[in-house]
Amino acid sequence: MGILSPNEARDYQAFNEMTNTAISIHGTHFMYLSYKIKYDWRFWDRHVSRADFPYWILEVSNYEFYAGGGG
Description:
The chain has strands at residues 28-30, 34-37, 40-43, 55-61, 64-69. By secondary structure, it is mostly beta strands. The chain has a domain at 28-69.
């Protein structure tokens, strides 16, 4: 097992798991998601999104999205 560093390019994954559908995430907005290679910050260039009912994702680009649902 290696040590993760936010300044090294890897196949990082991000997820959020809700414990019940009463948890509201309305108003969630992620933008300018990027990663760093040496001294160069780059926008995410690919992604795979998934949302299960009652949650949803509205994709603006590879590096920006809105999420909502629940509650």
